[in-house]
Amino acid sequence: MAQTSKELVKGLFEHKDLTQIPFIPWVCSFAAKLEQVPVQTMLSDAGTLSRALINAHKLFGYDAIVNIFDPGLEAEACGCKLDWPDTGALPEVVSHPLSEGAAVYDLDTSDFENQGRIPVVLEATKRLNIIKGKEVAIAGVITGPLTLARHLKGEALIDDLNQGNDEAEDIIEAAGSIGLKLCRSYCEIGMDLIVVAEETPGRLGTRISQVLASPLRSIWNVAGFYNVNTLLLSKGCSEEYIEPILDLQADGIALSGNMDYSRLKDAALERNCCFAGSIPLSVLLDEASLVEDTVKECLVIKDKGFFLSTDWEIPYETNVNNMHEVMRVIRDNRGS
Description:
Number of domains: 1
CATH architecture: Alpha-Beta Barrel
Strand content: 15-25%
């Protein structure tokens, strides 16, 4: 009997022999394109968001639905201003309260679950779980503490962290506590997977583990309490950061960038950590004829704990035919 997508993802994190390689793409703004609604409209209404994500999954049939992929979600709830591009891209954070006079202790997160668009996302997540959760894995995405801290403080945060600035580390801890609140809310709804999306942890250099270990460990612990698996997602990584990121001890990682994937595979298997082969977003934006070879190259790995993903959030402007081609190649190669 064929395994459901939910069973595939569960078996992935249990390092079982699977009938096929799971595919977990990061679909968000692309769903708005398919639904023919503005991204801002989709990300601001629970019914539109859940319907668009369900319809996108119905069209392609991948193995997990992510409830949101919006790095500005938590920042907006904390008082940052957003700019919504007309191009269909995700919103950009354009103000940083902690560089504009506010202090860390001024951040009021006591009622975080009711701030900004958080209630919209929680309601949409409940609907996803009710409608699709029995057959399909549902993943709750959280903005990583470093990314959120940069939104709160601005780009100066990275230099401050690398110089050992205590205030900067306090901001990371505050960002981590916000992620922890969202993690707990997701887990109470009944997620299969908690995904922490960090844009550029490599910018911390050798201090990756030192800075991020504590806030992430709290998130892993809460997810573990609810028996929910965890995944750390990042892009723009280079080889020297593979081990430090793995040492952050998520159940799985999805890394992309300039690296040797054989080194990534060996390091992940050594730590019993699930790992992804990532389809570059450039391929999804290019000619459909280029898709097959790239996806087949990713599918060469057959180890337990391996899954297929995308570099990052699938862009709004992605060619629909390219996604169909990705799914065709994956289906043709399943069981081979």
